[in-house]
Amino acid sequence: ERLRLDGRVAYVTGAGQGIGRAFAHALGEAGAQVAVVDLVLAKAEAVACELSLKGIKSLALAADVSKPEDVQRMVDAIVARWGTVHIACNNAGINLNSASEETSLEEWDKTFNVNLRGLFLCCQAAGRIMLNQGYGKIINTASMASLIVPHPQKQLAYNASKAGVVKLTQTLGTEWIDRGVKVNCISPGIVDTPLIRSRELRPLVRRWLSDIPAGRLAQPTDLQAAVVYLASEASDYMTGHNLVIEGGQSLW
Ligand code: NAD
Predict the structure, then answer these.
(1) 101-144 pLDDT, tens digit each
(2) How many domains does the chain have?
(3) Predicted structure pTM score
(4) Which of 72, 172, 185, 224 could form a Cys-Cys staple with 140, CB 3.0–4.6 A?
């Protein structure tokens, strides 16, 4: 009962595929109406359509989370349609892969613009509405890479940006809790999504597999209950928390 999200308004960024898509389904199945947000409108529309077919109220929006005007437009569109935002799932992220000594400034900036600046912009835009109404749940997607350095390396910008996600979450989580806004993050291990099937990451994944006590990659479905929990009143005493779901990988 305390895990139900009926009547709540949620959005998920990077929801056109992978983890974000699974989050959108999970929140919708728990009762929330869900704005499906992605850089690529067609992907957002496809997922919003999947939700509609399940009887979930949904809305497809295009936004580049690294752009302040896009983020504001996203929040304004949700408020225009549904009146407010209760649950903000800031999940969009990218993982470019290069040796640290070869990482270009462009790559560094791009990674931080999406993974950290985008998160700041979304937390701030959604947070203002939540602080105003004295209620909100923000769930950011960090990564196990915020805690450990998964080997082999070549993830300098990504790892550093994800460590930043955790600190941003801790800081907002403690700053806003007395005004009813809880901010937590989820740190997945290696999840079987299009992101890790890229040509650059595929060889790494094979090596990573031997580092996972669970003996397999995570599926996006392995993360669905966690996002519902953090979005629900069942987790009201939690804030600034980093919920790690990695099949034990960070312990080995
Ligand atoms: P993915 O690449 O499969 O999907 C990401 C989605 O985000 C895509 O649909 C893409 O179009 C969208 N996107 C990219 N840049 C965007 C932007 N600037 N604005 C809005 N949308 C944008 O990725 P995924 O594996 O589902 O990962 C989702 C999140 O989980 C990311 O933050 C990622 O860092 C994190 N994560 C993934 C793994 C993993 O192993 N897959 C592990 C730990 C953390």
Answers:
(1) 999 999 999 999 999 999 999 999 999 999 999 999 999 999 99
(2) 1
(3) 0.98
(4) 185
- What does the alpha-carbon distance between residue 243 and residue 128 come to, in Å, rounded to a whole number? 24
Which of 135, 158, 229, 237 is the catalytic position?
158
CATH number of the domain encompassing residue 173:
3.40.50.720
Mean pLDDT over the full length of the chain: 96
What is the Å distance from ligand 1's center to 93 Cα?
4
Which domain does 211 fall in, by range?
9-244
For the segment 8-62, what is each residue's pLDDT rounded down to a tens digit?
Answer: 999 999 999 999 999 999 999 999 999 999 999 999 999 999 999 999 999 999 9
